[in-house]
Write a structure and sequence with these properties.
Distance between the termini: 33 Å
Strand content: under 5%
Radius of gyration: 22 Å
Largest sheet: none
Low-confidence stretches: none
Number of strands: 0
Helix content: over 70%
Number of domains: 1
Length: 151
């Protein structure tokens, strides 16, 4: 879905907050359900590290719970932010290149520079789209692996 936005007159679904958060929420729910299915109530022991003083229990549980939820939310935020930033950069530089090519009315040797910049940014955007898909997949697999193999 990250590469769809590079096609003219289309948009990237993963650049929208609701899509990124929806995908990360589904991973978060899967992680919790898999953990509960595999370990039952013992899955909740990950929120209180073994050997910790009981007086710190409320603080540790809150910190670990926020950390657990933040991992899931960060998946969506990272994806949306990187894809949106890349596509905005691409749109701004493409508009700038188009303006430079059409402003003078005469195509010169200097016209190659804006075209080269747009080609470079396109290649960069393809790389960013592929890397973001890879990072999302790897982190989702790590989070699911953590819920299957407790501690």
């Amino acid at each position: 879905m990250n590469l769809v936005g590079l096609v003219p007159y289309t948009f990237t679904p993963t650049a929208h907050l609701i899509v990124g958060f929806g995908m990360s929420l589904s991973i978060l729910i899967s992680v919790i359900l898999l953990g509960l299915e595999n370990f039952g109530a013992n899955y909740l022991s990950m929120f209180m590290p073994a050997g910790s003083p009981l007086i710190l229990a409320p603080f540790l549980v809150i910190v670990e719970l926020v950390s657990h939820l933040a991992k899931g939310i960060s998946l969506g935020v990272r994806l949306v932010a990187n894809i949106t930033a890349g596509h905005l950069l691409f749109a701004i530089l493409s508009g700038f290149a188009f303006t430079m090519l059409t402003a003078g009315g005469v195509i010169t040797v200097l016209s190659i520079f804006p075209i080269a910049v747009v080609v470079f940014i396109t290649i960069l955007e393809i790389g960013v789209a592929l890397i973001q898909a890879y990072v999302f997949s790897i982190l989702a697999a790590i989070y699911i692996g953590e819920s299957i193999h407790l501690h």
